Amino acid sequence: MRSTRMLTALLTTGALLAGAVPASAAAPQDRPEVRAAMAELLAAGALGVQLRVHDRRGDWTASAGATKLGGRAPVPANGRFRTGSVTKVFVATVLLQLVGEGKVKLDQPVRDYLSEFTVDGRITVRMLLQHTSGLFDYSGEHRPDGSIESLIPLAGERFVDSRFRSYQPAELVRLALAKPANFEPGADWSYSNTNYLLAGLLIEKVTGTSYASQLRRRVILPLGLWDTSLPGAQENIPGPHARGYYAYRDAASVRTVDVTLLNPSWAGAAGEMITTTRDVDTFLAALLGGELLSPPLLAEMRKTRPMADNAGYGLGLIQRDGGPGCGTMLGHTGGIHGYLTFAFASPDGSTRMVLSASLRTANLRSGDIADPATNEAAAAVQAAVFCTS
């Protein structure tokens, strides 16, 4: 679920993508540059890919690869998948709606709402949404040697053996709060899933209902996102979907495990969502089109703090400058065992892309869900969409 970095990638030329299927015979263009980038993503470590694009040429979907290892069935072009940290954009939207209703203040200390936790009194709601709180990331902090220090088993054989365990968000928050902060509140930027577990708990405290019920009432039902769900401890992915895999070193060999079934309660409000490319596309269009937030609140969401790779982080929203010919892109990446997601749009929502890759590899050194080559190849698909539209 750790947010994948937006990496600059050069497109490569190659054979047209075998198995890519347009949404209909009326697809406006074949988009060979996008298909070639999807083929490179398969070569880099994805087992299957599904992509949805909306731009001046119209709507276009394609899929490539196989639904499962050793199988021949094609990936469904609108299959469901675990979206990881793209969940954060939805959660930030709900919290900003509560700000608009006067139930939450962005610059109020979190401790004023969640007094049951020992949160530093200088940490504000804005800092949670923007990852400037300094709080330790319970799901993993990168060490200087490239390994990851996680407070729960999320890598290697330990993850595989415990992937059906249930967690409570308060339990995970307390584990993180027991660790020293990475920096003084507001002094720097560091991605931490702990922030969004607290955001989900804050939503629950001020509304009296679960964050999931608030998200359903405020976003999923109004927009008709019928294939989007917050599974809690539910282990399966309902409906058509590609299977996801996780690889790790076992002594001298590499073991690959089907992790399609897992308990995502460890991710919670930071990354548990199951959805489709169609639903995320609908959400991005509505968010950037002003249907979910007032103009002042959407502007707050887009106020960024520098992160990396010509990118900034707003309130649950990554803003990336793609350079000449590509423009500004808003959205989020997401990763959870077996799945990688890229969801971005132009500031006015006129160009949008949602990509889901089902994985067959992982970062064998750190145990993270995707290796750098897979991330880079996914970023190249994004470039093919935004830099040629």
Explain how this protein is built.
With 389 residues, this protein is an alpha+beta fold. It is 29% helix and 18% strand. It is built from ten helices and 14 strands. The strands form four sheets. Strands 2-1-14-13-12-11-10-9 form an eight-stranded antiparallel beta sheet, sandwiched between helices. Strand 13 (339-345) and strand 14 (352-359) form a beta hairpin. Helix 1 packs antiparallel against helix 10 (372-386) and helix 5 crosses helix 6 (193-207). The longest helix is centred in the middle third of the chain and has 15 residues, at 193-207. The protein is globular. 51% of the residues are buried.
Keywords:
single chain; 389 residues; alpha+beta; eight-stranded antiparallel beta sheet; two-stranded antiparallel sheet; 10 helices; globular; disordered N terminus
